[in-house]
Amino acid sequence: MPAVPPSKLPAASEQGGPPPEILAAFEAAKGFMPVDEGLALYAAAVEAGRLGLPLLEIGTYCGRSTLLLADAARRAGVTALTVDHHRGSEEQQPGWEYHDPETVDPEIGLMDTLPTFRRTLHRAGLEEHVVALVGRSPQIAALWNSPLGLVFIDGGHTDEHAGADYAGWAPHVAVGGLLVIHDVFPDPVDEFTGQAPYRIYLRALESGEFTEVSVTGSLRVLRRTEASASGHR
Ligand SMILES: C[S@@+](CC[C@H](N)C(=O)[O-])C[C@H]1O[C@@H](n2cnc3c(N)ncnc32)[C@H](O)[C@@H]1O
Questions:
Q1: What CATH number is associated with residue 128?
Q2: Does residue 81 lie within any of the structural domains?
Q3: Gyration radius (Cα) of the chain, Å
Q4: Engineering a disulfide at 190: which of 53, 106, 136, 185 sits with its beta carbon 3.0 to 4.6 angstroms away?
């Protein structure tokens, strides 16, 4: 499908929200994203889907946000890709605030969110619209070489991980496509897992390649307005 110039893309607010059954599945799924941020992510994904390029998420967890990307991908006739090693982020490990004991594989004693993710997607009838990439984000990014309509960064919250997600995936956002970053907290008083997402958000703006489109809670939507020196045109 040929790319649609950004000026021809309707505003996110004109897109309509997800169907009620998808919103209900999102609300029922394990995960951390509030509904208002989910609706903003969905609007961004529907808009970006008009470019006819895949939508990619870093940080699948149990599939809560993936459901929204998957439904937007279904609407656009594109594929949603979601990257996760499924072993959990630092703050989700046993003993930490965001740990859920149900996510531990009792046989090996490590987190494994892949089975729950697959059930989430299956129940919502969206399996065929999603390709799950199971592995470490920088390792997969190093193998990737095609343009994306949307990149949603919601993976590890350390500078090492968030920085690698930005460096590895942002260059693949096509001109006119969207970069969405979750857990952006400009005020350290509000943050709960570190300000690395805020720092990559600043990097994106300071690069001069992205322009802010919307702010909803801790979710930031940016549009690529200039080609990346190392990416796609
Ligand atoms: C905050 S959760 C994602 C939440 C999900 N987007 C949602 O809305 O429910 C972060 C996820 O990123 C994954 N993750 C963290 N660092 C990663 C890395 N370097 N490569 C792949 N996945 C990673 C973790 O396993 C975890 O499932």
A1: 3.40.50.150
A2: yes
A3: 16
A4: 185
